[in-house]
């Protein structure tokens, strides 16, 4: 008997259980009459679904040469979607491998544009410049000892330090001649002749030291970073529209050209206004500079390999990009040249016009079937696949029918998430959780400059934690669940961040170690965050809902640079605040329902009812696996067809261990834009409610279109 399976790209829906190992069987898809682009409904032998009460229901059981009564061989021959064509042209052949490696430079662009300002606006110890001491023969430390008052930090304690913004207002010739020692009675005055900057740790003059953005101008750097995040919001909306209207490749090229222009303007800026404008432009570019390419590549990878490719591109290339960035700054040691070196390469994205194919899914959604088929022919040729001409003709016919049907479908908006009480609660909690995650992640990444060690070394070591964080998800996300891992990782992030309060002031290494471990924990949570949202938000508004959550994270991240800037008051303030926010996030995460192994919500009604049967103390990692052996007579199956089914608990139903794919797409810098994905969602929304095969169960059994889940996603 052939093993027919439900195919949905990206993250698997673990509620679906098949009796046979797909590795030992072949697939033969069967289509309902009104199948849509992006949704594939296959009819497997003895396919069952485990509902949230633990019951088993038979969907279909038929021999190879017979089809369910609701379907026909004619439908099977004629109706086809993009995922059906991928196996014919190659799911992960030579062309896909080339595209995978082409994501590397775009990962670097993401890392460079996101974190470059850390090394453009470095600042270390600075004190008032006293010109009367220029010819004194004293070194900088000795000059500070007689001209700069010591201040004791009153917030959370700390050792006395030289005041950065005041100096003694005395006759320094008299002080030197008489050998006077400063005391509290000496009058002070604000700096009048500029500042002396300590370059021992930061190595070179930055935009801050060159323009004296200190003391009363100390808010310039965090303001520029906040404007960067405002640009990210604008970029998500504008470039999302351009990608949906004119195509992914034009939007990708335009986005990276904006990033290159922003870096050039940054390098030549002579005023704060121009510098801030350049950071706004870089904000427009930073997320989309990678995610547009990321989405496009994942669309051409078969479902079997999609999550692997999604994880590897982030875990490898993004980690490498963030790790080498500080050493580029260290090697160049000039903030203007560093800005040029990390932005001008973005202009090379123009080459994508000739070497990267346009999204065939987008072309199909626009009715440009001939161009889409031409691209698929190229894939088949490079992958050395022979494809029957009828495959392309069937795809054209199915696309035309799907477009006609989708034009009659009613639209739903993100506001529907707020219309019912339970779904409204989950949406608000999810938004709050992601906002806290975004602030804590960004704060930890930027606070490496305040740890008292070389910012180049600490930033590089902290960035390496991206890779093991991804590996933790690979091995534990489908064992412990989203809720437990989100709570645990945020809780440990809070513990390690707050533990720095107990570290003596002279133990900078220990403080850095605790902060980096906290960063590692936050990395884990970040990768969970948007996937959690993608599973909680109903299918009908999923793309718009995730875009809303993602933009909320950008809005929240605006406060992150101001939290980091509190190190001017006390070096331990940023980690203290970030630790408290992580603790709040951990509590918020506990209030959300678990999604591991559950039948994910399709409609607004499903979203309202989702998780009602769960209790606060339900954790998949604490559930004892039980064998479920249904009465074969009651469901029309033979005992042999049901011996492979297990479930963790009635509330968390899962398939056999050998069918569970623990790889998940890392959602970093995430490209969940409603304007990018809403059209595809409209083409799949509601039509599947008419499928006869779904009438065999009271639950919503439509396979989730998970392509959106792997189309990522870091602020």
Features:
disordered C terminus, membrane, 715 residues, 52% helix, globular, MFS_trans_sf, mainly alpha
Layout of strands and helices, then pairs:
Blueprint lengths: L15 E2 L29 E4 L5 E5 L12 H6 L3 H8 L4 H27 L5 E3 L11 H8 L2 E2 L9 E2 L3 E3 L3 H7 L9 E3 L4 E3 L9 H5 L8 H27 L1 H21 L3 H15 L1 H12 L3 H30 L2 H9 L8 H4 L4 H6 L3 H14 L6 H18 L14 H26 L8 H10 L1 H15 L1 H17 L9 H29 L5 H16 L2 H6 L7 H18 L13 H6 L16 E2 L4 H4 L10 E2 L26 H11 L31
Antiparallel strand pairs: 1-2, 2-3, 4-9, 5-6, 7-8, 10-11
Helix pairs in contact: 2-15, 3-9, 3-10, 3-11, 3-12, 7-8, 7-9, 7-22, 7-27, 8-9, 8-10, 8-12, 11-12, 11-18, 11-19, 17-21, 17-22, 17-24, 19-20, 19-21, 20-21, 20-24, 22-27
Entry summary:
The protein has 715 residues and is mainly α.
Summing up helix and strand content along with how strands pair, one would put the structural category as mainly alpha
Strand adjacency order, main sheet: 1-2-3
3D shape: globular
Mind telling me the C-alpha Rg? 29 Å
Low-confidence parts, pLDDT < 50 over ≥5 residues? 1-77, 626-713
* Strand segment count: 11
Mean pLDDT: 75
Strand content: under 5%
| Number of H- or I-type helical stretches | 27
Largest sheet: 3 strands, antiparallel
- How far apart lie the N and C ends? 47 Å
Helix coverage percent: 40-55%
């Amino acid at each position: 008997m052939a093993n027919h399976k439900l195919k949905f790209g990206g993250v698997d829906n673990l509620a679906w259980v098949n009796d046979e190992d797909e590795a030992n069987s072949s697939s033969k898809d069967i289509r309902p009459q009104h199948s849509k682009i992006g949704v594939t409904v296959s009819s497997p032998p003895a396919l069952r679904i485990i509902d949230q009460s633990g019951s088993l229901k038979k969907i279909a059981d038929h021999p190879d040469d017979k089809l369910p009564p609701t379907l026909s061989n004619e439908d099977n021959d004629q109706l086809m979607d993009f995922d059906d064509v991928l196996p014919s042209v190659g799911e992960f052949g030579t062309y896909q491998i080339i595209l995978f490696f082409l994501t590397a430079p775009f990962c670097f662009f993401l890392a460079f544009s996101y974190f470059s300002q850390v090394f453009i606006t470095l600042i270390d110890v600075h004190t008032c410049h006293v010109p009367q001491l220029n010819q004194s023969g004293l070194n900088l430390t000795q000059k500070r000892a007689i001209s700069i008052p010591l201040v004791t930090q009153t917030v959370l304690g700390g050792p006395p330090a030289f005041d950065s913004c005041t100096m003694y207002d005395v006759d320094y010739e008299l002080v030197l001649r008489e050998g006077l020692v400063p005391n509290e009675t000496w009058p002070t005055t604000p700096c009048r002749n500029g500042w002396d900057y300590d370059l021992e740790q930061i190595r070179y003059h930055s935009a801050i030291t060159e323009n004296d953005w200190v003391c009363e101008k100390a808010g310039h750097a965090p303001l520029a970073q906040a404007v960067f995040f405002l640009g990210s919001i604008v970029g998500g909306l504008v470039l999302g529209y351009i990608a949906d209207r004119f195509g992914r490749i034009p939007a990708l090229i335009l986005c990276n050209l904006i990033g290159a222009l922003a870096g050039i303007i940054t390098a030549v800026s002579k005023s704060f206004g121009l510098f801030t404008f350049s950071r706004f432009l870089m904000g427009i570019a930073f997320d989309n500079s990678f995610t547009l390419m990321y989405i496009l590549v994942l669309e051409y990878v078969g479902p079997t390999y999609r999550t692997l490719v999604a994880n590897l591109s982030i875990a490898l290339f993004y980690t490498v990009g963030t790790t080498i960035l500080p050493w580029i700054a260290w090697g160049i040691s000039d903030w203007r040249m560093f800005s040029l070196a990390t932005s001008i390469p973005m202009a090379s994205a123009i080459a994508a016009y000739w070497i990267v194919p346009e999204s065939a899914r987008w072309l199909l959604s626009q009715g440009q079937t001939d161009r889409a088929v031409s691209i698929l022919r190229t894939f088949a040729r490079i992958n050395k696949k022979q494809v029957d001409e009828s495959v392309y003709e069937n795809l054209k016919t199915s696309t035309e029918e799907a477009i006609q049907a989708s034009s009659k479908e009613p639209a739903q908006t993100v506001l529907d998430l707020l219309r019912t009480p339970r779904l409204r609660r989950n949406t608000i909690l999810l938004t709050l959780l992601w906002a806290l995650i975004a602030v804590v992640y960004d704060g930890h990444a930027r606070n490496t400059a305040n740890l008292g060690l070389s910012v180049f070394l600490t930033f590089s070591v902290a960035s390496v934690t991206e890779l093991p964080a991804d590996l933790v998800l690979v091995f534990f996300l489908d064992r412990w669940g989203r809720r437990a891992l989100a709570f645990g990782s945020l809780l440990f992030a809070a513990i390690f961040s707050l533990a720095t309060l107990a570290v003596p002031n002279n133990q900078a290494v220990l403080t850095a170690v605790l902060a980096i471990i906290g960063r590692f924990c936050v990395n884990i949570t970040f990768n969970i965050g948007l996937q959690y949202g993608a599973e909680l938000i109903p299918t009908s508004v999923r793309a718009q809902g995730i875009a809303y959550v993602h933009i909320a994270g950008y809005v929240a991240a605006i406060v992150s640079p101001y939290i980091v800037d509190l190190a001017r008051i006390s070096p331990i303030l940023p980690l203290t605040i970030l630790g408290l926010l992580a603790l709040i996030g951990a509590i918020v995460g506990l209030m959300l329902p678990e999604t591991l192994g559950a039948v994910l919500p399709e409609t607004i009604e499903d979203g309202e009812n989702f998780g009602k049967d769960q209790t606060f103390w339900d954790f998949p990692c604490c559930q004892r696996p039980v064998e479920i052996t249904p009465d074969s007579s009651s469901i029309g199956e033979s005992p042999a067809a049901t011996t492979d089914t297990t479930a963790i608990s009635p509330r968390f139903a899962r398939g056999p261990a050998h069918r569970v794919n623990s790889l998940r797409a890392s959602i970093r810098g995430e490209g969940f834009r409603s304007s990018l994905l809403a059209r595809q969602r409209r083409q799949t929304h509601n039509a599947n409610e008419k499928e006869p095969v779904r009438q065999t169960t009271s639950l919503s059994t439509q396979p989730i279109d998970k392509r959106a889940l792997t189309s990522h996603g870091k602020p």
